[in-house]
């Protein structure tokens, strides 16, 4: 009997000790509430990521540039790329790096930042003729009927197709350097104006405007 009483007393002491340990210490207050849920990855970048996904990318040209330095030759790569959503937005950019993938990556970042809107009218063509020049390169663009297709080659074709233009005539005069052609055609696309915009500038109704 005495042994049983001792065992019971010891068990009670152990239970009391555990209870005192579970009680929070004085001065510490209540336990801190749990933190909010896990942080969302890529916070604030969702819209930008979605916007980047909607753009199609095309590498127009990659040049290998060699520079002779004291220790020998230094080789780098220059990439020219264009991006567009096929719905009236297009842009281009260039990038330099020691490796081709890095050069393309840099060029794509520049191209996405330089995106501009092109007025594409009914028939997936441009509103009117336009001639632009960049350096020694001159580019002529002319609207075409449905079913004509893109009458253009090389860099000009890449840019107009990414912009969503499906019917157009084009002609390049002078320098055929890829970067000059791209800059010239982009300058021309930026200068295009719709009938509504021209009417607003002249203070007339759109029906009274004749090209």
Could you describe the 3D structure shown?
The protein is an alpha+beta fold. The chain has a single domain (53-200), classed as Ribosomal Protein S5, domain 2 (2-Layer Sandwich). It is 35% helix and 28% strand. The chain contains 6 helices and 8 strands, in the order H-H-E-E-E-H-E-E-E-E-H-E-H-H. The chain has helices at 2-22, 46-53, 100-113, 155-162, 178-191, 195-202; strands spanning 56-69, 72-84, 89-97, 116-117, 130-134, 137-143, 150-151, 168-174. The chain has a 4-stranded antiparallel sheet with strand order 1-2-3-4. The chain has a 4-stranded mixed sheet with strand order 5-6-8-7. Strand 5 (130-134) and strand 6 form a beta hairpin. Helix 4 runs parallel beside helix 5. The termini are far apart.
In short:
With 211 residues, this protein is α+β, with helices and mostly antiparallel strands.
Strand sequence of the main sheet, in spatial order? 1-2-3-4
Number of domains: 1
Number of helices: 6
Beta-strand percentage?
25-35%
Radius of gyration: 34 Å
Any low-confidence stretches, pLDDT <50, length ≥5? 1-11, 17-22
CATH class bucket: Alpha Beta
By CATH, the topology is Ribosomal Protein S5, domain 2
N-C termini distance: 116 Å
Could you give the count of β-strands? 8
Structural classification: alpha+beta
Q: What characterizes the major β-sheet?
A: 4 strands, antiparallel
Average pLDDT for all residues? 81
